[in-house]
Structure prediction request, 171 residues.
Amino acid sequence: MAEEQNHTRTVLIAIGANLPRGGQSAQASCEQAVEALRRIPGLTVETVSRWYESAPVPPSGQPPYVNGVVRGVASLPPLALLDALQGIETHQGRVRSVPNAARTLDLDIIDMDGVVQDTQRLTLPHPRAHERAFVLLPLRDVLPDWVHPRTRQGLEQMLQAVQGQEIRVIR
Prediction:
């Protein structure tokens, strides 16, 4: 067990929000989340993507989302990282109601060095990342040669499949 905890892995974390929190914009919440990620023991943030604005997927009439991706290095096991991310979400006002509900913050582990895992709490890589431009475009900013661990597809191939999803760079 100690060996696993000392092993470092490249980690990709998607950040998203579409509800303001306490007078703070969704983008400010996302930027605040990056700072919170920097304070997680066992996680080093290496690169942060540009910020994107995207329409909700699936379409729902919700406000647009702000999305980005962080690339880092983690010595934490996947579930410990998930716990830390959920703690940040809760601290920033995340309420878990129905799937795909609007939210003040969403943090998802997209990939951890190609680990493939299916448990009740965590599926790696993220099971829908390859279907969402709001994950793939910022992911390309931080790791352009990423290959999906299950499908073995490269980013450009996955991006072809999500053409037409509403998304634009905001910063």
